[in-house]
Structure formats: structure tokens, C-alpha cells
Amino acid sequence: MSSPGDLLDGISGALAAEGNILQMVLVTFIGLSCYNVVELIILVPATFRRWRGLYFWSLLVSSCVGIVPYSIGFMMKFFTRADSVLSVTVLTVGWWTMVTGQSVVLYSRLHLVLRDEKTLARVLKMIIANFFLLNVPTTVLTYGANIVHSGDMAWVWGYNVMEKVQLTGFTIQETLISTLYVVHTVKLLRLGADAELRPDSRSIMYQLIGINCAIVAMDLLLLGLEYANQYAVQIVLKGFIYSLKLKLEFAVLGRLVDIIQGSRHPISLAIADTLPLCSYPRPPESTNHVEQHDPEPEQEHMPEPKEILPARTRNSMVETKGFVESGRRELGRSGS
């Protein structure tokens, strides 16, 4: 029977028997993961006006305290003779923060488009429950296979099974949160975005759907590699994919906030994280712009909303308008 050190499909595996090309590819992806994190460290503080809020800190923590230690820990495990306790501890801390932090990032941006407190509470409970149901057992098996019972094939087999279970669970969790985000974002853009004033709203909608589909596809890629027992490739790609997902979410969220607020210039994401949605007032239009247009002809060609919209849609628009006005009042009070 082979010893755990000869296996490549578990965390006790090694890369000593593999070719130099595979090792170079894996090191390259680890370097790309760290590079993406450096970009986020520069972009996120430069974009936020106020360094606070759940989205701000979850984005930074999941990248700095998650992806970097996760990548470094596996490099220590597979490419150095570092002590197993040290390497496993570093990668485990990074894995906890990276995976759970990614879900917290998705949860924090969900507040932008979803105001149902019960649904938000259920999502938060799901994240907390999966931490104890998936992270904790996997960690116990990780230490058992590498340190406590090193050389025991039963622990390696148990870890390999649990690794598939936890990866499947977290994939389902992130897919559910992303689906909620897309559905409510599309509803919000259809109700609150004026197609004439913001012709790019439909383009933003398609980009949101496309990017979230790409994120789900990357999760499915990791899941496929795991079930194909390509463990080393999967765990190294995981760090790179998670860093790429954070960059994509950060980029598209900035455009989403911009179009929902109706601002002509990019605004701070901290506004969207700390105040109600659409609370940032539009910049005042110049007097010359108002004088150049005669409002009477426009009113003649524009029927009243009650003549062209059903009652349900009118009610939704009234609620959205009230939500916007309340947010503006709150912003005015906080500014004073």
C-alpha cells in the first residue's frame, strides 16, 4: 500500500514525483493569485471614501488574510520541507478566511439590491451553519491526515471524501447567493432605471448576468477537478480563481452602484454599504441646461404613468421613489 506521501489526490500528497513543467505551472498560478491580491489592496482603499462597512472589510480580509496565506501555505506544503504544523496551519487559516470571506462579500453586496430582512437573515444563517458543518470537519481531518495520525490511510481517505463534500456545499451556497443577487438586480434596474436617461442600463444588466454566470462556471470547474481527483491542480487554481472572482465582483459592483444612483461620476462604494440604496443625490443640473429645453412640449408627448402602467408597476415605482427620498433625507442628516 502506498504511503500518504506518495499520493497526489489528498492534502498529504506531494509533488516530488511530478514533472518540472507541472510544478512551474502551479507556482505561476500562485504568483498570479498574489498579484491579484496586490491590485485589490491598491484599488479598494483608493475607491472607498470611507474605510468602513461590511463590503469594504470583507473584501480586504478575504484577499489579504485569505488568498495570500492559502497560497503560501500550499507552497510551503508542496515545495518546501517546512514543518507540517506550520504549513497546515497557514493554509487552513487562509482557506477559512478565503472561502467564508467570499460568501460574506456576496452577502454584503446583496444588501444593495435586496431589502427583505428575513431573506438576508436566512442567507447569513446559511453562511454561519456551513462554516461549522463544512469548515470544522475538514480542518479536523486535515490535521489528522498530516500531523496527529500521519501515515494512517483512513484519515487520508476521510479527508478526500470530506473535501468533495465541502467543495460541493460551498459551490451551492455561492450559487444561491449569486442567483438572488442577479434576480433582484434585474428587478431593480427594470423598475428604477430610466432607459432614456440611462441607455446603458440594459448593458449593465447583461454584464451582471454574464459575470455572475462566469463566477458560477469557475466554481463548477473547481468542482469538476475535485471529482476528477486532480487535487493539486484544483487547490492551486482555487486561490487564483477566488482572487479573480473578487476582482470581477469589485469591478461590476462599482458600475451597478453608479447606474442605480443615477450619478454622472463614479461614487464611493462605502455610500452604498453604509446608507440605504439610492441615497446618494444626483448632481444638480446647470441652469443653462434647464433654460435650453422647453418643458411644455415634453409634457405633451409624455403620457401620465397611470395611463400606460398597470397598478402593480405603479405601486412598485412609488415604493422605489419613496425609498430613494428616504435615503436622501438620511444622507442629508448624516452630512449635517
UniProtKB/TrEMBL annotation:
**The DUF7703 domain covers which part of the protein?**
21-259
Q: Which organism is it from?
A: Penicillium angulare
Q: Where are the transmembrane segments?
A: 20-42, 54-72, 84-107, 127-145, 204-225
Q: Is the keyword Transmembrane in the record?
A: yes
Swiss-Prot/TrEMBL keywords: Membrane, Transmembrane, Transmembrane helix
InterPro entries per record: DUF7703
UniProt entry tagged with the keyword Calcium: no
Signal peptide range: none
The record's listing under Pfam families reads: DUF7703
Q: Where is this region: Disordered?
A: 282-336
Biased composition annotated in UniProt, kind: Basic and acidic residues: 288-309, 326-336
State the protein's name: DUF7703 domain-containing protein
